[in-house]
Design goal:
By secondary structure, the protein is mostly beta strands. It has a domain of 141 residues. Strands 1, 5, 6, 8, 9, 10, 11 and 12 form an eight-stranded antiparallel beta sheet that branches. A four-stranded antiparallel beta sheet has the order 2-3-4-7, with no helix packed on it. A hairpin with a 5-residue loop joins β9 and β10. The longest helix has 15 residues.
């Protein structure tokens, strides 16, 4: 009996098997040949990208400039952990300011201060808007209430805006009269907002009082009761002062 030769047909299943075999052998080489221009828009869903995470993208291989296309909320908050974006890699032209929200409590910023002063010295403590707070360390002087023979630290406020006002436990300029405003030309004796003192030659640690101020533009500052404290002749001869002020407006 004669055997008939059969001609083998190429079936779709055979083609699929060959393609699968080539893909398995070549591995990432095939994947590397696929770029964005070969993919139709929205043809690859987010669920298909799950395997591509972790160490497949090396740190610092994607610069901030490469993220220009991904705006408008495509990058979800907290999806990029700290340290994955290189400093200065995102420029202002890459950030849509309309997407940024106000910083919480941005209208109440705290400024902390501390200074060590010898008698006769002064120092700037804080600058907030038009206001500046300074300290003086005085030996055997006269306090704001007229008491003589005192060692003390004195806090002074000044404003670059005419028409400002302030109030404190020591004194105040509240705008009740034409000469009752704080401004660039206000005399030093009228700008005292706090004092901590002891009898000359003695030593002690005390807290100060409160004060607040406001400028015509609405900028202001305040220092709550007890937030300022000073050591007189306690940490060596002279004054050590510390405290906080809040910026308002």
């Amino acid at each position: 009996m004669r055997k008939e030769e059969r001609r083998r047909r190429v079936t779709p299943a055979l083609v699929v098997s060959i393609v699968a075999l080539i893909a398995a052998v070549s591995g990432t080489a095939v994947a590397a040949q696929i770029n964005g221009s070969q993919l139709k828009p929205r043809s690859v869903g987010g669920g298909k990208l799950k395997p591509f995470n972790g160490g497949l993208i090396k740190p610092k291989t994607i610069h901030g400039s490469k993220l220009k296309q991904f705006t408008g909320g495509l990058i979800k908050p907290q999806t990029l952990p700290a340290g994955k974006i290189v400093a200065n890699s995102l420029g202002g032209n890459q950030i849509d300011e309309s997407k940024l929200e106000p910083v919480p409590a941005a209208d109440r910023l705290t400024s902390e201060f501390h200074a060590r002063l010898a008698f006769g010295e002064s120092a700037d403590l804080a600058s907030i808007g038009p206001f500046k707070l300074t300290a003086q360390c005085v030996q055997n002087g006269t306090t704001a209430d007229g008491t003589e023979g005192r060692d003390f630290v004195r806090l002074l406020i000044e404003s670059s805006e005419a028409g400002s006002v302030f109030t404190s436990d020591i004194g105040s300029l509240t705008g009740n009269a034409a000469d009752e405003f704080l401004g660039p030309d206000t005399a030093e004796a009228d700008r005292i907002v706090d004092e901590v003192y002891v009898a000359s030659g003695n030593s002690n640690y005390k807290t100060g009082g409160h004060f607040s101020a406001m400028a015509p533009t609405g900028a202001g500052l305040s220092s709550p009761e007890g937030s300022t404290s000073a050591a007189i002749n306690l940490l060596g001869t002279g004054c050590a002062v510390q405290g906080t002020v809040l910026a308002n407006g």
